[in-house]
Design brief:
Length: about 260
């Protein structure tokens, strides 16, 4: 049995899209377990199980996994999917082949200033592996960021646990042929789509700032430089939110034209 853990936040707009793609592309028996914080409980009809939660994204995923482990057998599969992520092809052959080589597979967002850790937009392991580590999506351990200081993010503790246990993991990398954005609107391994910041469309990431042409070159006061960066970030957020809305509308209409533009 495959158990799929997913978290939706404040908006139900991805629920029917995600569950439709799951039904279309996953032929193996599966159960869906969802967090629906700030969403009408009536949307729970789209999932097999819903879990009442508050807290951080990592905390919610850990809680969903804990509830699943209470019922699942060691040989069952555990899949994590962000609420704005879904399969665009049958992932099961890849999952079976990969888990024969390593105990965990996950997206690595190498495009985000070479982030090294497993990302929960798509991750699959066995219940046995998650129990034995034990798995944990929390941040904690750090790595060099794009602006000269150390950073951490969801999945960093899981990465460290795998390292300490001497366990490899298989990275699923971005496979877009066309990039509408350096991080968002991503296809990974030609298997999974991740909209990125689907519940906070205006959120900027490290790669946006790292790849930006400096709007405040080294002249003028520090106050002036700061104001120019704030103006750049505001304009970038507005453009990103508009682009996110346009892509979402195309996905919502159905068909494959939106995907063909990416791959």
């Amino acid at each position: 049995m495959l158990h799929i853990a997913t978290a939706h936040y404040l908006s139900p707009r991805w629920i029917e899209i995600q569950t439709r793609y799951l039904r279309e592309y996953i032929a193996a028996p599966f159960q869906t377990w969802a967090s629906l914080e700030g969403i009408d409980p009536a949307y729970g009809v789209h999932f097999d199980r819903t879990v009442e939660q508050l807290g951080s994204h990592a905390g919610k995923l850990n809680h969903l996994a804990m509830e699943i482990l209470e019922e699942a057998s060691d040989d069952d599969l555990l899949m994590f999917l962000d609420g704005d992520a879904f399969p665009i092809a049958d992932p099961m052959p890849f999952i079976a082949d990969s888990l024969a080589k390593a105990p965990l597979i996950a997206v690595r967002r190498a495009e985000n200033v070479n982030s090294p850790q497993p990302h929960p937009c798509f991750c699959v392991t066995t219940v046995r592996t998650w129990r034995s580590l034990p798995g944990d999506w929390s941040g904690g351990p750090t790595w060099p960021g794009g602006q000269g200081w150390n950073v951490t993010d969801v999945g960093s503790l899981l990465m460290r646990k795998l390292e300490l246990a001497g366990l490899p993991w298989i990275e699923v990398l971005r496979s877009n042929r066309n990039n509408l954005d350096p991080l968002y609107f991503a296809v990974y391994g030609d298997l999974v789509y991740h909209h990125g910041a689907g519940f906070r469309a205006e959120k900027l990431a490290a790669t946006h700032r790292a790849s930006a042409e400096d709007p405040a070159p080294m002249r003028g006061s520090s106050r002036l430089r700061r104001r120019r960066w704030i103006e750049w970030e505001r304009a970038k957020r507005e453009r990103l939110a508009d682009q996110s809305a346009r892509v979402f509308e195309r996905i919502e209409r159905g068909g494959t034209d939106w995907l063909a533009e990416l791959i």
